[in-house]
Amino acid sequence: MKSNPYFYQWYYYTQSQRRGFIALIIVVLTIHLSLCLMAYYRPQVQYQDTLTSEEQQELQKEVDRLRLQAANKKDTIYPFNPNYITDFKGYVLELSVEEIDRLFAFRKKQQYINSKEDFQRVTAVSDEWMKKYSSYFVFRSPSGTQGHHTTKQYLQVKKEARPTSLILKDINQATQQSLQEIYGIGPVLAKRIIEDRDRWGGYVHQDQFKWVYGLSEQVVEKLVEQYSVLTPPKINQVDLNQAGVNELKNIPYLNYYLAREIVKYRSLHGDFVNKEQLKEIEKIPLDRIHIISLYLEIRN
């Protein structure tokens, strides 16, 4: 019978070494057995994967409450003077383009709306619209008298307060001295208005008054009462579907970031079909789109 060579190798080690090997094996087996027993006898935590029917009902009630609250929530509307509704304000108030145009045409005649009836007559808005928004009307006559007046009352106030008719002056021809004649505009604000006008090569719309830093709403109203854009500057329109970032960033109220977003949108969605698509550009100032659009064109 052939001898096993491994058997002799075992006896090659000393007795103390053999005992060490055996002890190491026993320790490893003991640790392994202990871990198995700990895992087997460890208390099992019971997790509740599903909600009880009562909890589900309470959760559904809370979801329904939040949904109803969101449905009933309305954007806050502050009192406003309907004589100075802008394109963007009209868009927010759900006015159609034709209704806004009628208001603008009426205001160009240097006439003022002084009652709810006058507003509906001029713009031809529906009774439903008047019921929804007319409660927020605040009328302010050119003389500064605030309140709800009929046309007859307003004409009497205007006759007593202003013996001469109000003639609008051209903002693009105004000087710092003439602007300071308006209450609330000093040398600093007058200079700022002129600098802002020169920056864009001339104002193209009265809405640009309210974006001059430092002008309060009351001062803007007084400025609108006396100044308008009578000689708009010549605009070299830029092709919205061909212009690059460097061309677009020089357009009033755009910057490098917005110009880049316009080019990115164009590359992802194709050429612009209409200027209304500008509203989809991230962070574009929605209240200034009607000004920005004047400097753009879409060529087929």
Task: Quickly describe the structure.
This protein is mostly helical and 300 residues long.
Describe this structure in words.
The chain has 300 residues and is mainly alpha-helical. Helix content is 49%, strand content 3%. The protein has helices spanning 5-10, 15-41, 53-72, 87-92, 97-108, 116-123, 127-133, 151-161, 176-179, 187-199, 217-226, 245-248, 256-269, 289-292; strands at 169-170, 227-228, 238-239, 296-297. The strands form two sheets. It has a two-stranded parallel sheet.
Present the secondary structure layout.
Elements lengths: L4 H6 L4 H27 L11 H20 L14 H6 L4 H12 L7 H8 L3 H7 L17 H11 L7 E2 L5 H4 L7 H13 L17 H10 E2 L9 E2 L5 H4 L7 H14 L19 H4 L3 E2 L3
| DSSP helical segment count | 14
Strand content: under 5%
**Alpha carbon gyration radius:** 38 Å
Unreliable stretches (pLDDT < 50, length at least 5) are 141-164
Mean pLDDT: 80
Reported for the largest beta sheet, the result is: 2 strands, parallel
Strands in their spatial order, largest beta sheet:
1-2
